[in-house]
Specification:
Among the domains are: 1-191 and 524-553, Alpha Horseshoe (Serine Threonine Protein Phosphatase 5, Tetratricopeptide repeat), CATH 1.25.40.890; 319-422, no CATH class. The chain has 21 helices and eight strands. It has helices at 2-9, 33-36, 40-54, 70-73, 95-98, 104-129, 142-168, 192-206, 222-235, 239-250, 272-275, 310-314, 343-347, 371-374, 439-452, 456-469, 482-492, 499-505, 509-516, 520-523, 536-541, and strands at 79-81, 291-295, 339-341, 362-363, 365-367, 391-393, 412-413, 434-438. The strands form four sheets. A two-stranded antiparallel sheet has the order 1-3. The chain has a two-stranded antiparallel ribbon with strand order 2-8. The two termini are 21 Å apart. Residues 80-234 form the SusD-like N-terminal domain. InterPro entries: SusD-like_N, SusD_RagB_dom, TPR-like_helical_dom_sf. Belongs to the SusD family.
């Protein structure tokens, strides 16, 4: 246990690379910064390692079925537990039992984020203090290479502290790496606003340096940095600054909304809105102009991911229960359906013609198929009285009430509708490049800032741009309030945004989760549960100074 805690106080620098030329069957766990960071190639390997760490967010924690993203998306008005298993922080019948300081998943998430902090600090320190680094190796100057490495590392640190501040509030703010040789057991929790000001500083440093298209595929773009500045300024109640940074993204033609069909399935039935979520279409160089940041996953490549399981968690268990359908790639693969849309999230669509509610975007039915229809997989088992070609419509008229036995016949978002076509049952990981952030989110930040600044007409116009793209009817000024904006975010960013953070930022998490999540009203403590408990192991390791726990735990 104490070894784990060293991620915060004296963590091992763990570097992994997603570059094909650095593959090793048994890579070393410890790489000393003094040797690794002596030249540009070593620093690039360090940056690759940071991006690999950040991509853990969409993986199972410690190669388990606990998806890290659950801590940011689930337990909200949009997602409830369904077949809960050993998930992260879903509001469920056992919320009280799990939401404790000794819950090992919280410890894992906390220490994962501090591993990013420490690894970032290690790179920053070496670049800022060493004079013997060999910066040759590409067409950029020494100054350009130096600034770009610093910018990427500071973005990663901002990424980690953004998460930490939303999940735990006041957390230790550390800007020095563990390689300094000082083992600290006297950490203090830094006020959350001070932590967020550091996030802003890191992003402001990076913004003029990070290129518009990202320095490599899978790395953050300038637009994403500008987006996070816009979001943080809303959190800091500075909507005028939000509007400034959101407009940088919205007014940049490089980050255009997808309005026309394109890419790998353009000759098949579908809608423009969903093309960008298809494997082979997600990256900017593949035609996805809306993407601001795309997570890269590749099987059997060091740094390409070990256990990305977004599809498995969000795809319902159509393979069992009354449905008992054959698992196929086009149905979404092997679904566990641990985190399901709430009934409210499905009922939230206010226009039946909205593409975002269509069968292409949300799986609401299946068709019984014979062997030819399922090829190369077996035929579906036909219930008595049914025929191949018959449709099964998924029913959400009654809410999810039991998150252990679950409901197989439940609709799900198709934004992660991907499986290994060779073995959709055995290979359950989502090894394809996934959109992590897109410009539509920035439009909604812009609308929120306009609303907070009193320009309700502008907010309605901004939202109507998104609604028009999805063939939803226009709204008027009278429709706009903060709850409508949150409703629209739910329609547009279903299964994408860190919904918990959005609701916390707007002061709506407890209210809306208790109202719209069937498990919420009986399990949430609206004062206590807006923050997670500091892991007990972290508190116990802080031997020289008491680290206060969050209230109520």
């Amino acid at each position: 246990m104490k070894k784990l805690i060293t991620c915060l106080v004296s963590s091992i620098l763990l570097i992994s690379s997603c570059s094909d030329d650095l593959l090793n069957e048994n890579p070393p766990n410890v790489i000393y910064a003094e040797n690794l960071y002596s030249d540009l190639s070593g620093l690039e390997a360090g940056i690759n390692g940071l991006y690999s760490l950040m991509r853990y967010e969409r993986e199972g924690l410690n190669a388990s079925s606990s998806l890290i993203t659950d801590v940011t998306m689930s337990g909200t008005d949009m997602f409830a537990a369904n077949h809960s298993g050993n998930g992260v922080s879903r509001v469920s019948v056992d919320w009280t039992a799990r939401n404790r300081p000794d819950y090992d998943v919280y410890e894992g998430v906390f220490l994962w984020l501090y591993e990013i902090v420490n690894s970032s600090n290690e790179i920053i320190k070496n670049v800022e203090e060493r004079e013997d680094i060999d910066w040759s190796g590409n067409e950029l100057s020494e100054t350009e290479n130096r600034n770009l490495i610093l910018a990427e590392a500071r973005v990663a640190r901002a990424f980690a502290y953004r998460h930490l501040s939303y999940l735990w509030g006041d957390v230790p703010l550390n800007l020095n790496p563990s390689s300094d040789g000082i083992i600290r057991t006297d950490w203090e929790r830094t006020p959350v606003n001070e932590v967020r000001q550091q996030v802003v500083k890191d992003l402001l440093f990076a913004e003029p340096i990070i290129p518009e298209e990202g320095s490599l595929t899978g790395r953050i773009t300038k637009g994403a940095v500008q987006h996070y500045l816009a979001e943080l300024y809303l959190t800091l109640n500075k909507p005028d600054s939000t509007l400034f940074w959101a407009n940088k993204v919205v007014n940049n033609p490089a980050y255009a909304l997808i309005t026309e069909r394109y890419g790998v399935q353009v000759d098949q039935a579908g809608i423009a809105f969903m093309d960008m979520f298809k494997a082979g279409n997600t990256n900017r160089e593949e035609g996805n102009s809306e993407a601001l940041w795309v997570f890269q996953f590749k099987n059997n490549v060091l740094g390409g991911g070990e256990y990305p399981i977004m599809a498995m968690h969000h795809t319902s268990r159509y393979r069992s229960g009354d449905l008992d359908l054959t698992v196929t790639a086009d149905r979404g693969g092997y679904g566990n359906g641990r985190s399901s849309l709430t009934k409210w999230a499905l009922d939230n669509f206010d226009d039946p013609n909205d593409d975002r509610f269509s069968e292409y975007a949300i799986r609401k039915s299946f068709t019984y198929r014979d062997a030819a229809g399922n090829a190369p997989y077996p035929a579906d088992n036909l219930p008595e009285g049914k025929n191949y070609g018959d449709k099964i419509y998924l029913d959400w008229s009654e809410d999810i009430t039991d998150d252990h036995n679950g409901i197989e016949e439940w609709p799900f978002s198709r934004k992660y509708d991907w499986a290994d076509p060779v073995d959709p049952i055995g290979n359950r990981e989502s090894f394809y490049d996934q959109i992590y952030l897109r410009a539509a989110d920035t439009y909604l930040l812009k609308a929120e800032a306009e609303f907070k600044l009193g320009d309700v007409g502008a907010a309605a116009n901004t939202i109507n741009i998104l609604r028009a793209r999805s063939h939803a009817s226009n709204i008027t000024v009278s429709d706009i309030d903060i709850d409508f904006i949150l409703d629209e975010r739910a329609r547009e960013l279903m299964a994408e945004e860190p919904r918990r953070y959005t609701l916390l930022r707007t002061g709506k998490w407890a209210e809306r989760t208790m109202k719209y999540n069937n498990h919420g009203s009986s399990t949430i403590d609206p004062k206590r549960d807006i923050l997670l408990p500091i892991p007990q192991s972290v508190i116990d390791s802080n031997l020289e100074k008491e680290m206060p726990q969050n209230p109520g735990f």
